[in-house]
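Chain X:
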Amino acid sequence: MDIINYFTTHHAQLFYVLAGISFIVELSVLGMSGPLLFFAIACVKTGVLIHLGLISGWETEILTVGILTALITVVLWKPFKNFQNLGGGRDNSSDMIGKQVPSVGEITQTSGHIRYSGIDWNARSDSADDTIADNTQCVITAVEGNIMLVKRI
């Protein structure tokens, strides 16, 4: 019961605790998807406003969290999603990159197959204007999921 009394008299600390819990849940459970991150930032800002004495009273504080959450979401949603969708470029970690393999059928920018280690793999040409004919030696330049990007040797 002491903690309840503490938070009823120290509103700013309650909002800081809410922000901390929201950050932890966002990072550990949701994987930086956004909603709790924006709420946590709004809670921190509201706590600062309470400490500065600019707002007081539960109604005003909760309204401020709601308004700040909406504003922060509007401002940061698109940049945050763009940051998440950067992707970091091509995956160069596969041991298949650099291997020479024969094509199985024609390989275009959109589809095709190669044979590697006795298995036919989905492949596509690494360059837009290059079509690789059947049974042509290729080199794997990148891996995107289960599709090998290849170019003619």
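Chain Y:
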Amino acid sequence: MDEGIIMGWNPGLWDEWPGTYAGVVAEVRDGRPHVTQWSVGARREVEPGTDAWLLRQGGSYGLIGHGTVLTRPYEDVHFADPRRTANFVDVEFTELVSEADRVPRDVLEVVVPEVAWRFQFRSGNRVAAEPNRRLRELWRDALDALTP
């Protein structure tokens, strides 16, 4: 898939990782992908196979994960308000880094300026094909720099 989608995570609003985020990072690092449901806001058109980018929000802003969308959007109970519904996809995260190892927002703004990194208030924002290609390269370089 050529496009990507941003999956925002703000621990101040939702922090329901099984155990802790650090624990999930360790599992993924050990080769066990993390499959989960993730909100895509109001978006109704997301194709399986789309790159899923996990963006840390609410303080330590930056890119902390990559995965693949597994399903088309479906409606389910809203993660923060059980009286409402939202659209979700299932996503498989195959690469996660610690919050300290994130790709900082300032770097994202330089390499992929087409994305309004300071204005990602919800999940589901699309990343077009060419910016997504550069995002993949940046992510790969960041992971390579973490490898001893």
